[in-house]
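SAMPLE LOG
Freezer: B-3
Tube label: C17
Construct: single chain, 412 aa
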Amino acid sequence: MMDPIYNLGIATYRNAVRMAAVRNPKAKLMLRGQRRCFRTLQRKLDPAGGYIWIHASSLGEFEQGRPLIEKIKREQPDARILLSFFSPSGYEVRKNFSMVDTVVYLPFDLPANVKKFLDIVKPSMAIFVKYEFWGNYLSTLKRRGIPTYIISAIFRPGQIFFRPWGGMFRKMLKCFDLLFVQNEQSRDLLAGIGIDNVIVAGDTRFDRVADVRAAAREFPLVAKFAEGSDFTLVMGSSWPPDEDIVIPYFNSHREMKLIIAPHEFDRHRLHVLMSKISRPARFYSEATPQNIEKADCLIIDSFGLLSSLYRYGQAAYVGGGFGAGIHNINEAAVYGIPVIFGPKYHKFQEARDLISIDGAMSIHDADSFSAAMDPLLENQPLRLHCGKTAGEYIKSHLGGTQLIYNQIFGPQ
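STRUCTURE (predicted):
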């Protein structure tokens, strides 16, 4: 088990979540889900165990793990899979995911929880996605001889693993049988601290967005809306700071249409959003074949549509870049359209790559947004070139899921 200082830190974090749960709905959901975890496992799992345990922190990490889950089920229909989340934003959206046997919240990384969890699950292997490093789970898996992997991981020089005082965290990395990383920089950083069981497999989200595009749904009302203009901008996963830049530009450029799919919304949020728009706008839930033709802006007030909506745009704006970080730009780029996003993109390899090849642009205020948008509106050959570059970039990065599957389960 981990150092007592580590365990004290986890216990302190748990207590902080408990206090936050008094006022914070997400913290309350997490605690409630963790309390139900062991009962759920005992009720739903085969006591013989043998589950492939896949853990994702949140919804974004799940999307990176999903291609591997689907690949396992295609190749091994009888495989038993347990999916766990740490964050409510993952669990509450995917708690009924049909391709796994059970979905649970992962209990806090304390020795008693870890022992009970692994005793019930008896996993045949464990697969962590991208950023999850829980010391007690990892060290216990290693001690029990359970093969353990991390996929789509990415490492940066400033992380604690590479600091002089990061010895405890470097030990966590030694618990993995294989680390599948996104890029060569990650492999080089790990080699510098003596971690050599590393394979560069890229980011499995590329495979996911390709699959999503292949199965993209058609929305006749959205198609009817978009066909009324030569240029439609799809703004996906937007937050108010994104909208405060994009909407004024849209209001003053009547030659374009706009589709807005906010990242989160409620009645108040939608009301405020609508109040910022000075041109004819319509909520998707209220759209009809008759009134959609009169709208210049379509606000998507339903979840689960965005990944298919980018097909109706000539360019995309992906939100989040004025907050914690941009959302999934690959969902847009896979359609072969140029992508614009805010300034907080540096943690995302695909964003840096797309900017370097002119498939994407980063903006930081209204003026820089205008400088990015004006050429896309006015110069169709340039727009098509940027979009083609973005689409070809996605195609060139497919295949990570197959590589990972072959390494873990053997070549097909």
